[in-house]
Amino acid sequence: MSETPWHTVTIRVPFANPKHATIAMQVIDVDPELQRQAVKRTLTVDGNDLVASFATSTVRLARLTTNGFLENVDLVARTIGEFGEDSERKQVISR
Fold first, then answer.
1. Which residues contact 47 (CB under 8 A, 6 or more apart)?
2. Residues 6+ apart with CB under 8 A from 49
3. Are 59 and 67 in contact (CB under 8 A)?
4. What are the pLDDT digits (tens) for 6-31?
5. How confident is the model at residue 38 (pLDDT cuts 50, 70, 90)?
6. Three-state DSSP class for 2?
7. In what order do the strands lie in the sheet with 7-14?
8. Which is nearest to 31 in space by CA: 80, 86, 68?
9. Whole-angstrom Cα distance, residue 50 to residue 25?
10. Which residues have C-beta within 8 Å of that of residue 21, sequence separation ≥ 6?
11. For residues 12 and 1, what is the distance between their CA atoms, to the nearest angstrom?
């Protein structure tokens, strides 16, 4: 019986700085993949970029995993924009 071929996807998401990319990685990495035997995820930071690599057992899982990851990135990026260091400076300036 032959092994299942793995389908790989790598996504680079740019952030304003390495600190924000690291925060995003730490937040997203807390939640494990639901199908650990079928999805292998690696998150790293390269400069200002969050780099996510996925290996999945099916193309469908690659699509679902990628979509879920991008939804999480969107939420983290919006949260950083709302509550991050830049928003703190805006509040001080507006007072």
1. 18, 21
2. 12, 13, 14, 15, 21
3. no
4. 899 999 999 999 999 999 999 999 87
5. confident
6. coil
7. 7-14, 49-56, 39-46
8. 68
9. 7
10. 13, 15, 45, 47, 48, 49, 50
11. 35
